Fold:
Amino acid sequence: MQQFSLKSSVVLMGYAGSGKSTVGRLLAQKLAIRHQDLDTFIEEKQQQSITDLFKNRGEIYFRKIENQLLVELLNAGSPLVISLGGGTPCYGNNAELIANSQHLSFYLQANVPTLVARLSNEKQQRPLLAAVEDLPTYIGQHLFEREHYYRTAKHIVSTTGKTPEEVADEIYRFLT
Structure:
């Protein structure tokens, strides 16, 4: 494998189920740098699950903490692969922070049928999807609303019809 020095972090954004966490872990291994999933980072810092944070403190509190910890990761001293939560770029000034940073951002784009297939078995673990009855319609509408924010990424990579390994390889080839 080619050796090179990554000067900035890689930020992965996209809708829930687009592969951010899985691709992030694989990419970090290839780059030999640390991966940080923002939701996991929030859970560690807050010492409770995202589901419990939403239930006990509400979404506004969650989004405030999410922004603070995103800033912390973006200002980390060494390059990371950062996997954002699906809503992260859509709240506050998060999309602007990422777009105006020196970091390399990638929108992992997936179509609605792919997202529905990936998310149908995970609804109870995802606070914003738990009560949704018509998942395809919900995701289609929600994705339409969020697409603008995701497109602030410097690069777009389709994940539809690709394995996480293929997506990580594609980003790795771009970086090297």
Observations:
- Residues 59-74 form the longest helix (16 residues).
